[in-house]
């Protein structure tokens, strides 16, 4: 979107799920142009139903990012997020924003144009880009040699994942990023990964060939916001270093510069009372392992317990990201003045 004063910095945030909007809400207050690059491999819930009936990328994560970056009246945001209840039969479970995104795409024939139109009405501060121009299918290869097809199916297998990849609907490797995505990565001062599900929110973006290559070659400083909790069927028993190792292995190089790690203990009663057991345990720390992978570690009390969940504290995380923008010379990656530091 166009602003009267050109922002000082450029920040690209890559991910999906519920974690990405948490950070975007704070980032929009910085003196920076924000670009949210959002996964298009979601095949569950309202998004999954819509992508099955209409040739459009799953709109749910795009909708949530729009609301996070919106400066519109709260009533309009609430309407955009409103989800029909179970008594509405056909509309049951669908969010109004999802339907609007799908309808505009069908009207205009272009997802980018539909997002641009809605962004004007929603007074979006920044840009929201789907990672790819078409819906993709996420596949997981497990260590026992079996394969799961579809993002929503992966965690159900409860097996250790060896690697994931993304394919087009036609069964071809996902090569092309959506328009402007690669430019946003290459021109960024700071790239933020997460927070979000490692295998189903972050990696589906990075495994698109053009995006993976851009992240590996950009001069931007790359920050990974490590999850607070492990996830059932994805990252059981993972340390923070395990998360980073998986990312590095998938892209074939050490591209993460800084890792943000929460040090506040999650209350035991929260873990015990998880109804669906999606979140099992708190992610364990392995600071030596992170440093061996060339990462600077910023550890702090990033935990925020709200709405019955363990989330990252938006203000504290954004404060650290702001500090990186203001103090690091981000235009030359790995330059001598940016030494890998001990835990701060």
UniProtKB/TrEMBL annotation:
It is found in: Cytoplasm. It comes from the Bacteria. Gene3D superfamilies: CofD-like domains. It holds the Pfam family CofD. Its main location: cytoplasm. Belongs to the gluconeogenesis factor family. Required for morphogenesis under gluconeogenic growth conditions. This is Putative gluconeogenesis factor. It comes from Facklamia lactis. The lineage of its organism: Bacteria, Bacillati, Bacillota, Bacilli, Lactobacillales.
């Amino acid at each position: 979107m166009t602003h009267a004063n050109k922002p000082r910095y450029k920040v690209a945030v890559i991910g999906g799920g519920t974690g990405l909007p948490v950070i975007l809400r704070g980032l929009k207050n910085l003196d920076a142009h924000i670009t949210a690059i959002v996964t298009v491999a979601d095949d569950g819930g309202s998004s999954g139903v819509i992508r099955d009936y209409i040739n459009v990328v799953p709109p749910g994560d795009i909708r949530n990012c729009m609301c996070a970056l919106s400066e519109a009246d709260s009533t309009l945001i609430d309407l955009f997020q409103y989800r029909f209840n179970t008594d509405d039969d056909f509309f049951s479970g669908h969010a109004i924003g999802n339907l609007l995104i799908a309808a505009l795409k069908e009207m205009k024939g272009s997802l980018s144009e539909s997002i641009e139109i809605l962004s004007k009405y929603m007074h979006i501060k920044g840009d929201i880009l789907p990672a790819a121009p078409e819906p993709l299918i996420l596949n997981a290869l497990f260590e026992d040699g079996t394969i799961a097809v579809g993002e929503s199916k992966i965690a159900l297998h409860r097996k250790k994942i060896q690697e994931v990849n993304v394919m087009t609907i036609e069964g071809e490797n996902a090569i092309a990023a959506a328009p402007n995505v690669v430019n946003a990565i290459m021109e960024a001062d700071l790239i933020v990964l997460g927070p979000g599900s490692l295998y189903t929110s972050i990696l589906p973006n990075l495994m698109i060939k053009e995006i993976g290559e851009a992240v590996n070659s950009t001069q931007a400083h790359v920050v990974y916001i490590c999850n607070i909790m492990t996830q059932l069927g994805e990252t059981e028993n993972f340390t923070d270093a395990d998360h980073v190792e998986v990312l590095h292995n998938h892209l074939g190089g050490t591209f993460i510069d800084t890792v943000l790690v929460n040090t506040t203990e999650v209350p035991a009663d929260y873990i015990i009372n998880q109804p669906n057991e999606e979140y099992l345990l708190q992610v364990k720390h392995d600071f030596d392992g992170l440093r061996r992978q060339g990462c600077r570690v910023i550890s702090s009390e990033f935990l925020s317990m709200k709405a019955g969940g363990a989330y990252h504290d938006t203000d504290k995380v954004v404060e650290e990201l702001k500090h990186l923008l203001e103090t690091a010379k981000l235009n030359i990656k790995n330059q001598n003045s940016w030494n890998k530091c001990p835990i701060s």
